[in-house]
Design a protein that fits this description.
Strand order of the largest sheet: 2-1-6-5-7
Shape: elongated
Helix content: 25-40%
Radius of gyration: 22 Å
Distance between the termini: 42 Å
CATH superfamily of the largest domain: SPOUT methyltransferase, trefoil knot domain
Number of strands: 9
Number of domains: 2
CATH architecture of the largest domain: 3-Layer(aba) Sandwich
CATH topology of the largest domain: Alpha/beta knot
Length: about 250
């Protein structure tokens, strides 16, 4: 996959994208990350990327010309399939694991980093950009959001994570949060690993994990339960948990 990032702060990249899973994916050619300075697509001597909002109001709005010109330059530099263009914005649709999987299936993404009071509406209209939010809060700019998006999508690329099964078991990869995880030592400061995990009884372990995933989801993200696809065993676990107060 190729991902192009357009930002007024190119120096912050690759940041965390240069280490760990994403760093190795880049080294192995699984992920091609390219960063573009938005100011390179301005025409005035001050390299201005923002201006006062029409209609008045506080703050500044990012101008349409630099984003459009940058996106056109990116498209001209890559002869493959037209990229999906994503614009970081608190007004965007929430990034979810399901949407990340859809993005990971695309060969080319362009991520535009918003900032200030927002981006001129014509950018999304002219480029067919999809606005993406990473949560219901406001960041000073879209660079951190872009990194989150790239990390979430990049680790889903085939070969990015050595153990593909671990990706498939992640929270949100199914319909529920993940079950609790433990490792050595078996006891630490009076806290012991649940006995079932030490038993070697694979079916008992599977049932415990299924039940605990339900328990955790019910306690922390109960709204997910309503949309979860539960089998008969899970529905019985859920009934027991609700009767016992989880």
């Amino acid at each position: 996959m190729r991902i192009d990032v357009v930002t007024i702060f190119p120096e912050v990249f690759p940041g965390p994208l240069g280490v760990g899973v994403l760093g190795r994916a880049r080294e192995r050619g699984i992920l091609d990350l390219r960063v573009w300075d938005l100011r390179d697509f301005t025409a005035d001597r001050h390299r201005s990327v923002d201006d006062i909002p029409y209609g008045g109001g506080a703050g500044m709005v990012m101008k349409p010309e630099p984003f459009v010109l940058a996106s056109e330059a990116i498209r001209a530099s890559h002869r493959g399939e037209a990229p999906a263009i994503l614009l970081t914005s608190p007004q965007g649709r929430l990034l979810t694991q399901a949407r990340a999987r859809a993005f990971a299936a695309r060969p080319h993404l362009v991520v535009l980093c918003g900032r200030y009071e927002g981006v001129d509406e014509r950018v999304a209209e002219l480029l067919g950009a999809e606005e993406i939010s990473i949560g219901d809060y406001v960041l000073p700019g879209g660079e951190v959001a872009a990194m989150v998006l790239i990390e979430v999508v990049g680790r889903l690329l085939p070969g990015a994570v050595g153990d593909a099964e671990s990706v498939a078991r992640d929270s949100f990869s199914g319909d529920l949060l993940d079950y609790p995880q433990y490792t050595r030592p078996a006891e630490f400061r009076g806290r012991a690993v649940p006995e079932v995990l030490l038993s070697g009884h694979h079916e008992a372990i599977r049932r415990w994990r299924a039940r605990e995933a339900l328990r955790r989801t019910l306690l922390r993200r109960p709204e997910m339960i309503d949309e979860a696809r539960l089998d008969d065993e899970a529905r019985e676990f859920l009934r027991q948990l609700r009767q016992g107060g989880a």
